[in-house]
């Protein structure tokens, strides 16, 4: 429990630093890289709705403003190889050594490099350029204290400094700098309520403080902070139209929020597709789109897109290939090719490294599951135990179950049906499940009863995929839920299927009764598919999100 409390306090500090500030560029997220066809990028931004507007700053030439925008465009095109945009921002400093823009924009690039790889050698550069941006901006503010751009620069730069102090273990300094960053952005909005770039940063703050876990909200309340989810979304949507810098990032964050918290799969996909189509040579957006399809169970499409990222991304960008190998490992497990799955997951362990606890836990679990599916139970147990030793909840139910229960002959047959469903072979899945079910109907053994009911659940799920609602319901009502309660993931599958059926039959009250059972479970312990699907169904049933 003590570890959890420390983690929540640390997260609170990180939150106050990172989310009140403006990211400045889409490549400042964890994974991004770029390519190279500058003309293609510029033509794309010109013909689509993203318009990079000149800064409205006074006292500088139009050429100076043009170089700011050109450097930003080049950053999208070349990320994370920033030699060309660095040169453009250096030219700003050469033109006007008294101005902060060159330092401010370079600090944003170093922030993105640090975000991608915290062990990078760029950390001192992040502090240097942030310090310089603060120093020069404060000098200018002596004569122009209400300038909204100066407040924006300070908001971002102090946020960067907060990250610097956090990395060095100076938590109080980290908090103070992060809080300053937020305050400057709020001041910028007081100067201009329609200042889109500040709307972006504060919109993220309002949103996250509203949807944070129950452990974080009391800490925020103690220090006098609270969120407003609807206001946060509204500000992010407004920043799409009003911002100079944040038009791209606003779409990125909106896609994230709509998918993870709002149950709006359609809107999230719309933004993700737009970003990928607008910047087709930047793998960051293709990577995000690939993750989106994986999270919603479209493994075939996700595999195609991840394979494209793998093929087109330079091997020197280790953080990309680690993520791609991890997801392809999970996808090939779902598709039933366990040797290829472990080839990818072994790369995560031995070549790229497991950079987070959730990566470590899930990698170990799926390696173990692959080994068990290949008939290597003893080897699988060692990996299940390694996964169990990582102190997070992901796949908790399954890990607990498989440590206690080896896969039976019936389980292996169920897995074959799952492979057919995941490969979109729904008719074959139904035929396979019905054939196996017919062999079990006269079996009185308890385990056989469990397997028989799980085959009925697979038939239900495959019929739902085919939109055969009546057939799905016919099979679903025969399931004895008491027979499948050994593995709580099976329970989640059952109640999710029930919610889908009764929603399709326009019996929303009944649908919610089933879905509410899923919300009674520890959702952090469930596969991410059920978390996303539960939110999606909740909005379809209730017209809003009442539970997260």
Give the oligomeric state of the chains in this entry, treating copies of one chain as homo and distinct chains as hetero: single chain
Q: Can you summarize the main beta sheet?
A: none
Give the C-alpha Rg. Answer: 25 Å
Question: Structural class per helix/strand content?
Answer: mainly alpha
Percent of sequence in beta strands:
under 5%
Order of helices and strands: HHHHHHHHHHHHHHHHHHHHHHHHHHH
Separate helix tally: 27
Q: How much is the average pLDDT?
A: 86
Poorly predicted sequence stretches spanning 5 or more consecutive residues: 1-15, 17-48
Distance between the termini: 23 Å
Coarse morphology: elongated
Proportion of helical residues: over 70%
Number of strands: 0
Can you put this structure into words, describing what you see?
- This protein is mostly helical.
- Helices cover 72% and strands 0% of the residues.
- The protein contains 27 helices and no strands.
- The longest helix is centred in the N-terminal third of the chain and has 21 residues, at 171-191.
- The chain is elongated and about 90 Å long.
């Amino acid at each position: 429990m003590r570890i959890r409390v420390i983690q929540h306090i640390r997260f609170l500090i990180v939150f106050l630093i990172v989310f009140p500030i403006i990211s400045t560029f889409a490549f400042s997220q964890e994974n991004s890289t770029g390519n190279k066809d500058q003309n293609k990028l510029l033509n794309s931004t010109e013909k689509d709705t993203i318009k990079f507007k000149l800064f409205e700053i006074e006292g500088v030439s139009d050429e100076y403003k043009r170089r700011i925008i050109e450097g930003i465009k080049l950053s999208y095109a070349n990320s994370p190889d920033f030699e060309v945009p660095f040169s453009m921002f250096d030219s700003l400093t050469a033109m006007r050594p008294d101005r902060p823009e060159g330092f401010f924009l370079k600090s944003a690039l170093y922030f993105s490099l640090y975000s991608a790889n915290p062990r990078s050698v760029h950390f001192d550069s992040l502090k240097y350029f942030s310090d310089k941006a603060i120093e020069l901006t404060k000098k200018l503010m002596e004569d122009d204290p209400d300038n909204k751009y100066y407040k924006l620069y300070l908001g971002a730069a102090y946020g960067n400094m907060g990250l610097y102090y956090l990395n060095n273990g100076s938590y109080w300094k980290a908090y103070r700098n992060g809080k300053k960053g937020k305050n400057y952005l709020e001041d910028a909005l007081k100067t201009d309520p329609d200042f889109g770039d500040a709307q972006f940063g504060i919109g993220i703050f309002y949103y996250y403080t509203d949807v944070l876990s129950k452990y974080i909200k009391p800490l925020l309340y103690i220090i006098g902070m609270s969120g407003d989810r609807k206001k946060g979304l509204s500000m992010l949507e407004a920043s799409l139209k009003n911002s100079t810098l944040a038009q791209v990032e606003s779409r990125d964050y909106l896609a994230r929020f709509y998918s993870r918290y709002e149950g709006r799969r359609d809107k999230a996909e719309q933004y993700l597709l737009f970003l990928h189509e607008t910047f087709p040579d930047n793998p960051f957006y293709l990577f995000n789109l690939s993750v989106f399809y994986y999270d919603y169970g479209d493994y075939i499409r996700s595999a195609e897109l991840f394979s494209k990222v793998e093929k087109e991304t330079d091997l020197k960008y280790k953080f990309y290939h680690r993520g791609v190998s991890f997801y392809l490992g999970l996808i090939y497990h779902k598709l039933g090719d366990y040797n290829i799955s472990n080839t990818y997951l072994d790369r995560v362990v031995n070549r790229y490294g497991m950079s987070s606890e959730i990566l470590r836990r899930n990698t170990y679990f799926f390696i173990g599951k692959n080994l068990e599916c290949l008939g290597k139970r003893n080897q699988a147990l060692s990996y299940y135990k390694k996964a169990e030793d990582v102190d997070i909840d992901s796949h908790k139910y399954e890990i607990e179950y498989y440590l206690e229960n080896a896969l039976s002959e019936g389980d292996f047959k169920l897995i074959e049906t799952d492979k057919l469903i995941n490969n979109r072979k729904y008719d074959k899945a139904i035929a396979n499940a019905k054939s196996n079910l017919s062999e079990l109907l006269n079996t009185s053994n308890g385990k056989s009863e469990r397997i028989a009911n799980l085959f009925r659940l697979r038939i239900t799920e495959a019929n739902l995929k085919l939109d055969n609602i009546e057939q799905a319901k016919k099979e679903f009502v025969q399931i004895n839920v008491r027979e499948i309660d050994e593995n709580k993931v099976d329970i989640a599958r059952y109640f999710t299927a029930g919610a889908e059926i009764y929603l399709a039959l326009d019996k929303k009250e009944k649908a919610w009764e089933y879905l509410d059972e899923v919300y009674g479970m520890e959702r952090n312990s469930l596969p991410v598919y059920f978390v996303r699907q539960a939110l999606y169904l909740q909005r379809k049933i209730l017209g809003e999100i009442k539970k997260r």
